[in-house]
Design a protein that fits this description.
The chain is an alpha+beta fold and about 210 residues long. Helix content is about 15%, strand content about 20%. The chain is flat, with a radius of gyration of 22 Å.
């Protein structure tokens, strides 16, 4: 799993290795118990594997590096730029989206139990032309965060076709060249296609009837 990062407040736990002992909620509660100052906890997945992205305060960085979350879990240090105040998330999203429309409503998703920010937000935009006859920019799937080099992903109803693998437009994951490059065929064991697409696959045997 690949996660871009910028600073040392963010850690990625492989919770797949403890899936038989702890549920996702139990791992998030463990974060709350061990690191009560943690301000965001985001569940992630990569195929069948599950991860937990945890954001902690600077005073807890050494502890989380030394102790981790569970003794058998693998801690991956992927630093990122944290946002400690939830109001800053809303302010940053508003600034990032104002060139695409008037922000009528915006709210972020926090966990009901731990109150951690879950990495998701919802916004209502009015894309009608402004009174000064200046049009808004067309909505984009990849948006710069407050005019910085950091970006986030946006989806909306009836958006054009886009790929959930490379996040580019004009195609889906099933036809994505980059996605297919990582596939391994179970028939010939070559990369780049699925087993049902394999050119070496033997044709089906048709029973002979008299």
């Amino acid at each position: 799993i690949f996660r871009s990062s910028l600073s040392p407040g963010r850690f990625l736990f492989d919770i797949h290795v403890v899936k038989n002992k702890y549920s996702e909620l139990q791992t998030r509660l463990a974060v709350l118990e061990q690191y009560p100052n943690a301000y965001a906890c985001v569940p992630l997945s990569d195929g069948p594997k599950r991860y937990l992205e945890v954001y902690v305060e600077s005073q807890d960085i050494q502890q989380i590096q030394d102790e981790g979350l569970f003794p058998k879990s693998r801690l991956r240090d992927l630093p990122c730029k944290p946002i400690k105040d939830h109001s800053k998330v809303i302010t940053g999203l508003t600034k990032s989206l104002q060139s695409f429309g008037n922000v009528l409503d915006l709210w972020i998703l926090t966990d009901k139990i731990t109150r951690h920010y879950m990495g998701l937000a919802y916004v209502v935009l009015d894309t009608s032309p402004r009174s000064d006859s200046v049009s808004f920019q067309p909505l984009s799937h990849i948006i710069s965060w407050s005019e910085t080099e950091v970006s986030f992903l946006e989806t909306w109803r009836a958006m054009p076709t886009w790929c959930r693998y490379c996040h580019k437009g004009g195609h889906t994951k099933s036809s994505c060249v980059l996605s297919k490059a990582s596939l391994i065929c179970y028939v010939c064991h070559d990369k780049g296609h699925r087993s049902f697409e394999c050119p070496r696959k033997a044709p089906p045997i048709i029973p002979f009837k008299k």
